[in-house]
Amino acid sequence: ISSQTGSGKTVALGLVIAEEVVEAVNLVNRGPVRARPSVVLIAPTRELAVQLTEELSWLFKPLGATVVSLTGGTSLGIDCRDLKRDPQVLVGTPGRVRDHLERGSLELDRVRVVALDEADEMLAMGFEEEVSAILDATPEDRRTHLVSATFPPRVRSVAARHQRDSLMIAGTTPGESNSDIDYRTMVVAANQRLSALVNVLLMEPDAKTLIFVRTRIDTTGLSDALADLGFAARPLSGDLNQRERTSTLNAFRRGQTPILVATDVAARGLHMPDVSHVINYNLPEVPETYLHRIGRTARAGAAGTAISCCSAEDRPNLRRIEKLIGQTLKVQEVQVVDLHLL
What we know:
The protein is an alpha/beta fold.
């Protein structure tokens, strides 16, 4: 299932698997293991797994279904408590789900549907072994869905090993640009990038802005630099523990922190309403990642702006992105601010 970010893939998937959920609600578990779900969804990150759990719990509430999540960074005791509820739908990250399989606290013998959300990101994060182990523990006659905005060749090769008679359902053409986004490029030297960014932020003082950088260290460095200049900015990366990540995301969603500086942990699936600007402070190395990043804005029919900083060294990467989305990014005039005057 392929469609641009923000187009409703999670709800579409929920509708597709609803029949199996109805049947699962009426099943009686007489097996030796308490938790024997009928539907399993695997997501690459804790935040996305939790979000999927919340959305599917809301969607399946009228059916009387139990939906639980298993994610790294949480207590195994809490996991075991949730598994005792014998959920019909299980959502989890690859490592934690495999861990419970090996512990014997989870059985996947009656799984009818497996869905891999953001399948390409799971492979990029090195979860192919865990995903294969989970799939191997499920019946061969299950249905297997892969959901993402992009499907590079490596994902398709993995799909070929785990799916039979597969169909590609595309809500939008893979790689298709979002017409509700105003795409811009700022050609700026690396040593003037911060000054150019500050000018953009000053021009849009009320904007909810998501800034993408390359590394976890960059999130802290840039957010600290912006904070020193008087901007309310916070970092988000895999270095934060679960409580810190949840607190940061909630502050951004509520508008208490209007600027979030993040790695690509924030590029996938997370619900971030009303993001008006996405800024690629550093271009992603993989062109498909650009689509996931800028998909955080212009959601649910709203308009948005995507600005990318580009130095001379970034030009080849920029050309690959333009080829992917099928358009040339217009160049925005760069204005820099004397940071000493702030």
